[in-house]
Amino acid sequence: MTHISPALTAVVSLVGLAGVLMWRVREGRTAVTAKKLLMPPIGMATGFCMFLVPAFRIPLAWGLASFVIGYLFLAWPLLATSGLHRDGNVIMMKRSGAFFAVVIVLAVIRYIARDYFDRFMTLEQTGALFYLLAFGMIVRWRIKLFGAYRALIAGATAQPVQPAKAAACD
Fold first, then answer.
1. In whole angstroms, what is the distance from residue 134 CA to residue 67 CA?
2. pTM to 2 decimals?
3. Where does 26-111 show beta strands of DSSP type E?
4. CA pair distance 170, 124, nearest whole angstrom
5. What angle (nearest 5°) sits at the alpha carbon of residue 167, between those of residues 164 and 170?
6. How far is the C-alpha of 123 from the C-alpha of 56, rounded, in Å?
7. Which residue spans within 6-105 are E strands per DSSP?
8. How far apart are CA 14 and CA 17, in angstroms?
9. CA gyration radius for the chain?
10. Which residues pair with 92 in a beta bridge?
11. DSSP string computed for 67-131
């Protein structure tokens, strides 16, 4: 098995973090649609294919615990720092500077915890655990946003909300 240097994993983690932050800035500038809310967790669900490879397999209890911790506890900062609002006839993501701090802190926690877990698990198993944590967080966050989106669409105001054009989904 090839050894991956800590420096390389740190660089890859930082590139991933920068990608998430850039995506979030871009997401906040365009109108929200049901597709934009639901596709990230659906796309992320393809990651479950990693469990077809034996090196990524973990005990079921570990996997369930990881998902539940992400869903119940680690999603809370995302829920508290984001939301939706009506802007004219479209629905937009509320911007919160705290969101970026939350994402950075969660990335640091993940990196530090990964170093701990790497002492008694393989890199692949650690990746599988953190994938399940992240998936739990994303699922709960997007469920909340989708509920808010539906409430705004059905809203109490008489002004109809126009979903964004499909081209805006890119």
1. 8
2. 0.77
3. 84-87, 90-93
4. 31
5. 105
6. 9
7. 84-87, 90-93
8. 5
9. 18
10. 85
11. HHHIIIIITHHHHHT--EEEETTEEEEPP-HHHHHHHHHHHHHHHHHHHHHTTTS-HHHHHHHHH
